[in-house]
Amino acid sequence: MKSPVTYEKSLMKTKINEKAEKFNHLFQINEVDHHSLSEEMKWLESLIEMRCKQLFLEDEAELNIVSEVPEPPKSDSESPYSVIVNTLQLTAIDRVILALGIASAHYPSILKTFVQIEESSNAFAIEAGGEYNKFNRSFKPTFQTALFLLAGKDLSLWSHYSAQLINGSILLQNDIIYNRSSSEFIHGKIELDTAYLNYFLSGKKPQLDHGSYFPGKLYKSDLTMDDIILENNVREQIKPIGHYINALENGFFKNNEHGFKPGFIALFYGAPGTGKTMLAGILANTYGIDMYHVDLSQVVSKYIGETEKNLEVLFNRLQGKNCMLFFDEADALFGKRSDVKDAHDRYANQEVSYLLQRIEKFDGLTILASNFENNMDDAFKRRIDVSINVIRPTEVTRESLWKHYLPNNITFESDELLKHLAKEYAYTGANIRNIMKNVAMALHDREETIITHSLLSTYLTIENEKAFGKNQSRLIPFVQKSE
Predict the structure, then answer these.
(1) Does residue 410 contact residue 443 with C-beta atoms inside 8 Å?
(2) Residue 92 C-alpha from the chain's centroid
(3) What positions belong to coiled-coil segments (predicted)?
(4) What domains lie within the chain, and their CATH numbers?
(5) Fewer Cβ close by (within 10 Å): the C or N end of the chain?
(6) Distance in Å from the first CA to the final CA of the chain
(7) Could you tell me the sign of the dihedral formed by the alpha carbons of 215, 221, 225, 227, in that order?
């Protein structure tokens, strides 16, 4: 029987120049230098051709001829691809894995040799791995495919590169490549993170919150301390956070004059709507650090071990990055441990214990937000550097908030109405903002500029029900003093 590789080889030779032109056209659609990426794809293609040819050779002498892996191209440019190769100091196995991920995601025709061999022979399936889909005639490489391309039939090389994968690929550690397999590692499909594919093609560098496995999002705020109304004691209590950020940047934790660890934990607690998240964002913006808001829906899992696994991704990626990690409703993670009555209680307590140990190892700023301080585990509270009660605003502060959210060219019908609102309604800043937004839209619709108590009444009732409950939604009578 005629070897399918022989037929493939003749086809590939006639099309090699055509493919090179396709590479150049594909990677030159913008100003980003794609030469190194183009060369890497050609290298991968030659590697695939060599190994697939080797599959059908029986003679030992012929096997030795095609066993030597071609040298990967030099990545000495400033292109995005070269930056990753050089910055992470990618090994041969890493470069093959990354090249396969790019080919699978962006240029699958490079992998057509595997498809054609699969359709004409089942010889490669056991050795080369991969997943073939006969419905769309596609091939998805696995980590076994990478081992096959580097080691071929050489068992000693196979063991060598397998050991490197077992020790941990830097591509996996940085979530550039994913392995979603729940079974054996080498059978997992090689999946390139979309953010990095975009980086290689467009030059847009991924943020730290890239990837479907990362349970947090970059929170951006353009507000400053002048944009938030705080009680004076709260302003004083947040000062240590600024001191910590400055100390981290100034190398305070790198000297040998003390034994303090570089991490810092702050707790913001208080009623909903008092501005805990806003305050954290303002601090991040003020001191020029990134704030990552943890999505608890992506962290907390009912499956044993999954919560810890999700948090490891979070802590590992942000370690050493001088950023803020913000947990809203933190008592869902750091809540009090309970008496052990069943296996579920035992696991829940183990989860909290893990968090206590792991968060202490984090070398950045962690801010936890909770509605109630007493919901937090006692052992964890002892580890908190500062605990700040972001209290409901006092009457004086509430008056400032009403003025703060007052749109330009709009006024209250009287100073008495403003003081009445500040005195009689114990609102948070969020409550006041909601009311003023609705009032401003209503005035815009009426083409008016005066806020009257009559206009306010509807929105006060709505907000009272949300803030205090339906039984407390009644309005406080307001009597305008006669002049």
Answers:
(1) yes
(2) 28
(3) none
(4) 4-202 (no CATH), 216-389 (3.40.50.300), 395-472 (1.10.8.60)
(5) C
(6) 109
(7) negative
Picking from 108, 96, 105, the residue whose alpha carbon sits closest to that of residue 72 is 96
Name the packing angle between helices 143-151 and 35-54 (round to 10°).
70
- Sheet strands (E) in 149-230: 177-178, 191-192, 216-219
Q: In a structure prediction context, what are the per-residue pLDDT tens digits for the chain, which is 483 residues long?
A: 444 444 444 444 444 445 444 444 444 445 788 889 999 999 999 999 888 888 766 555 555 555 577 888 887 788 999 999 999 999 999 999 999 999 999 999 999 888 888 877 655 557 788 888 888 888 999 999 999 999 888 888 889 998 888 888 899 888 899 887 767 788 889 999 999 999 999 999 888 888 767 888 999 999 999 888 888 999 999 999 999 999 988 989 888 888 888 899 999 998 888 899 999 999 999 999 999 998 877 787 776 677 777 888 888 888 888 899 999 887 777 655 444 444 444 444 556 677 777 888 889 999 999 887 777 777 777 888 999 999 889 999 999 999 999 999 999 999 999 999 999 998 988 899 999 999 999 999 999 999 999 999 999 988 888 877 776 667 888 877 655
- The 8-class DSSP code of residue 252 comes to G
Residue 192 phi, psi dihedral angles, 5° rounding: -85, 135
CA 395 to chain centre: 40
Q: ∠ CA(366), CA(245), CA(289), 5° rounding?
A: 75
Look at residue 320 and give its three-state secondary structure: coil
Tell the burial category of 37 from Cβ atoms under 10 Å away from its Cβ (0-12, 13-18, 19+). Answer: buried
| CA 434 – CA 442 distance, rounded (Å) | 13
266 Cβ contact list (under 8 Å, min separation 6): 238, 240, 241, 365, 366, 367, 368, 384, 385, 386, 387, 388
Measured CA distances, 426 to 432, 439, 460, 471, 480 (Å): 10, 18, 12, 15, 20
Partners of 142 in beta bridges? 189
What single-letter amino acid sits at 253?
A: F
- Longest Cα–Cα distance of the chain, Å, equals 110
Q: Which residue has the tokens 């400032």?
A: 400
Which residues on adjacent β-strands are paired with residue 136? none
Using alpha carbons, list the distances in angstroms from residue 261 to 295, 315, 322, 368: 26, 16, 14, 19
Q: Please answer whether residues 27 and 37 qualify as being in contact, where contact means their C-beta atoms are separated by less than 8 angstroms.
A: yes
159: helix, strand or coil: helix
pTM for the structure as a whole: 0.71
Query: Token pair of 202, please?
Result: 């467009």
What distance in Å separates the CA atoms of residue 232 and residue 94, rounded to the nearest whole number? 54
For residues 117 and 115, give the distance between their C-alpha atoms in angstroms, rounded to a whole number.
6
